Structures are given as C-alpha cells and as structure tokens.
Task: structure prediction
Amino acid sequence: MNAVTPITDKFDVQIKQRVLDTIHSVVLLFDHDLHLRYINPAGEMLFAVSAHRLIGLSLSELLHIDEPMLNALHEVLITGHPITKHEQKLLLLAQQEITVDMIVTALHNDQSERELMVEMNRLDRLLRITRDESLVAQQKATRELLRGLAHEVKNPLGGLRGAAQLLEKELHDESLKDYTRVIIEEADRLQTLVNQILGPNKMPNKKAVNIIEVLERVRSLVLAERKTSIQILRDYDPSIPDLIADPDQLIQAILNIVRNACQAIDNKGEIRMRTRILRKFTISQEYHRLTMHIEIIDDGPGIPDEIKEQIFFPMVTGRAEGTGLGLSIAQTLIQQHGGLIECDSKPGATVFSIFLPVSTGDKA
Result:
C-alpha cells in the first residue's frame, strides 16, 4: 500500500491554508530537492524570521541535523513511508538548540512529485510550561506557609517591643536604657523583615506604561547607587507597545533583579537589559497573542547549582549577608501582572527572563 498522501484529494487549498496557519505545531513543506516551499506562522515564530525570507532555503540551511536523521528524510522521499522521531535535537538558524517530536510524511504535489511535510512539536516548551506551573504552585504554597508564620511572629514581637518601651520609662540609669534600646531596635528590624516576608500588600494600580521608561528608571537608580565600573548596556525594541501595569511595582521588581545581578558580578562587569516581543506565547498555560520578553543578563560566575531551583523562594540566597527576599518579591510582583520570571544560569551568562502579557485582552 502506497503511504504517500495526495494532498489535493484531501483538502481544499483554502481550508488547508486556514488549518495550517492556525495550529500550534510547526509545519514545514519541502519540495523533492528539500527546499522549503511553505512554513506556517508557528514555524515563523520558532525561527523568528518571516516566511518570505525562509521560503527557498534548503533543509540543511534551516536545520542543522545529524547524518542519520538526514538519511531518514531521504528514505521517506524514496519509499513514501512516514516516520516519527521522538526527542529529536535540532539546531536552528540562530544556533538555538531545541528538542522536538517530529513527524515526517511524504506528499504528492500537482506534478506528482514527492514532497516532505515535517511537523514538529517542541518538547522544551512543554517542559517549560510544566516547570512554570510547578514553580508557581510551590511558591504559592511557600508564601502561604510563610505568611502564616509571619503573622504568628508579629503579635509577640509587638508585645516585646511595647514591654521594652514601658521598661525604658521606668529606668533612671541611662546605661541600662541602652539595653532596652537594643531590644526596641532589634524588634523593629525583625518587624521590617516580617513585612518583607509577607510580600507586597497592595494590588497593582495599573495604567499604560512604556517599558523602556521603566528600564531607564531602573538603570539610573542602579548607577546612582553604585559608583563602580559596572556597565549597564541596553538592547531595546522601540516598537514594543505599552503595557497595562503598575509602573512602581514593575520598577521595584526589575530593580530587585538588577541589584541581584550587580551583587553577583561583585560590582564590576557587564549587565545587559534587552526587550523583545514574543507572539503566540504561553505563560503558565495562559496563551497570549503578544507577550513582552525582558531579559536581564549578567556576565558573573553564575548561580550555584544547589540553589538554582529555589532562587525565587523566600530566604534562599547565595550570599552570607543576603536576606533572600529580593527575587521572591520580584516574582510575586510580576505574577500579580499575569507574568512570570524564569532564570537560566551558567558561568559567564546568567539570564533572568521576565514574561508579561502585553494586555489583558490579548488572550486567544
């Protein structure tokens, strides 16, 4: 039985076009010489290049694949038998490595020549969504636990401070009052720490926000704080539309991340702030037509392996003098805007990626 599918017998051309243009899988159609004839919008998003610039490229120009896989594709052209490859690693034009499940099918065109349809589903994206869901769930549980603990600490802490104040009024020896002042000051310090653990206590006051203005504000604050040799480079996309967000909360979240980067590079080195727009992107199972992608990249030594998976949890830090609250607060603030922060770290390149839906009405 011939496994080659006569595509014109199955679909009307317009129906086929609509189906291929709307599915989330990447669909590539190659002619018998393995040159690209068609790519759907999901494929354009994967390569981050428009279709008219990709059409006509050879398969080897589009994808760097190993020789066994290339031989398997030629075999499909010769025999007409489809193949399925699981967890296939591919290298894209921009040298980005991805992992996909791939289905390769032979088709007949109008001239009865065999062509190849390659359908790909990204596994790394599915893994990212699963990881994000787990991160959000773990953080929510951790925050609830810490909130309960913080509230239990606040009441006796207030009583301790009040008792120290009353005792101070009864003491006539000024040298003894030094002890009560220590109690009061330490109680105040613990109160501040407890409030930080509780996290942001107000909902965002949202309005139209230009993200470049937010990033420039963060940059000026950090440079004013640290008279050092740090370079903060900018790589902004000026065409990004406004966000509907709370500018103060965005400044606080991004400032926490940039300050963390400054500490990681020991106040000497390079930090890069980059903005891009992602199309048809998923944040914790919420699909958005447009998503803002903000990257904070430093060239420091990287995050220690033992805390990589917990860096957004409260009280987790790689520095002896740190509180471990800055990144946790940043994550909470971004999540209040329907977004998420992810981190990828290796020596010489730590990347904090902030994903924010461009508007609340852009969901599919």
